[in-house]
Write a structure and sequence with these properties.
The protein has 335 residues and is an alpha/beta fold. Helix content is 47%, strand content 16%. It has 14 helices and eight strands. An eight-stranded mixed beta sheet has the order 3-2-1-4-7-6-8-5, sandwiched between helices. Helix 9 (228-244) runs antiparallel to helix 10, helix 10 runs antiparallel to helix 11 and helix 12 crosses helix 13 (309-319). The longest helix has 20 residues, at 251-270. The protein is globular, with a radius of gyration of 21 Å.
Length: 335
């Protein structure tokens, strides 16, 4: 069987605890035609010493040490250095399962796909779900870009937009100059995946869980992110201009992701330890009015069945301006 060269890009910052397990999960693959591009993004713990001690003489591993520039620029540098036929991203906390690369190569050879969306498992948080069932559904019937886009823009039983849950044609990425927006702290991977989907001529859903997503205290989902709202609004605007304007039938899906933006914004605001409770509540109501979230809330309220149970509860409260109740319950839950 033809063996395509697969480039695996790993950005790492201060992760001496997990990076060895991550890299070794790739080096132990039976499939042999791959390269690992590790971009050490200005780590100041023992990450650099560990990498150089264990992997500097390994011909399959390329170590790039840079000043701290953020994960987006680190991934972009990894893309520039990649020389394979296909491209994978792996986060330093996570691992590839046994024979993941062989499985991907088999499907690339059989399908000549530009993009494979594969399954993953979640380790460390029982409340976080994967989308294996969604992939199994997508494997049935004909696949086109619109069907995939509709699924990724949904908020219930949707395709999750993690950049590491796909394998990409490197030619597709470089020819179309798809990269990560350096100023985004959140949703940058979601945007990258959407751009790759739009440009792909053939997409293959593959429900086998090839990737282990490890969640811990360092996960971004557990932290307050000051730029969360502005970042998500920027990505939403890009989607509106580049997708919804060309396909108005997806406007309902767009209103759903705007609704999701508001829910995540409220949750993120409550994680801000520098503001007191009252200021957080005021900020939420002011932003709701300023960014005109009422339309998305109203549309979502009329279509509650399109959301999961937790989101339904939030939407009902937000519809009647009872964010303060949601905030109280969210605070109690986190305590």
């Amino acid at each position: 069987m033809n063996e395509n060269k697969i480039s695996i890009v790993i950005p790492v910052f201060n992760n001496e605890k997990n990076i060895e397990q991550c890299v070794n999960s790739i080096l132990s693959q039976q499939y042999n035609n791959f390269e690992i591009v590790i971009v050490n993004d200005g780590s100041y713990d023992g990450t650099r010493n560990l990498l150089e001690k264990h992997y500097s003489n390994n011909e399959k591993v390329k170590i790039i040490n840079t000043e701290n520039q953020g994960v987006s620029l680190a991934r972009n540098q990894g893309i520039d250095e990649a020389t394979g036929n296909y491209l994978l991203f792996v986060d330093a906390d996570d691992v590839l399962v046994e024979n993941a690369l062989s499985s991907l190569n088999e499907r690339f050879v059989a399908s000549n796909a530009d993009l494979i969306l594969f399954g993953f498992s979640v380790i460390g948080d029982k409340n976080r779900k994967n989308d294996t069932v969604v992939l199994q559904s997508l494997e049935k019937g004909s696949i086109n870009n619109d069907r995939i886009i509709k699924s990724i823009l949904s908020t219930k039983d949707n395709l999750l937009g993690y950049v590491w849950r796909a394998a990409y044609s490197l030619k597709l990425i470089k020819t179309n100059k798809i990269n990560f927006q350096k100023d985004l702290k959140i949703s940058e991977d979601y945007l990258f995946v959407i751009q790759a989907i739009i440009k792909s001529k053939r997409i293959l859903p593959f429900s086998q869980e090839l990737y282990e997503y490890h969640l811990g205290e360092s996960s971004m989902s557990n932290k307050y992110i000051p730029s969360l709202l502005s970042d998500m609004l920027w990505v939403n605007n890009w989607i509106k201009e580049n997708i919804i304007s060309k396909n108005p039938t997806l406007d309902f899906n767009f209103q759903s992701i705007v609704m999701n933006t508001y829910i995540l914004f409220v949750q993120n605001t409550m994680r801000d330890k520098k503001q007191n409770y009252l200021k957080k509540i005021i900020h939420i109501y002011q932003s709701k009015k300023k960014y005109r979230f009422q339309k998305a809330i109203h549309n979502s309220y009329k279509n509650l069945n399109c959301f999961c149970t937790k989101s339904k509860f939030a939407i009902i409260l937000f519809r009647f301006n009872m964010e303060f109740i949601y905030v109280v319950l969210f605070t109690i839950k986190n305590m």
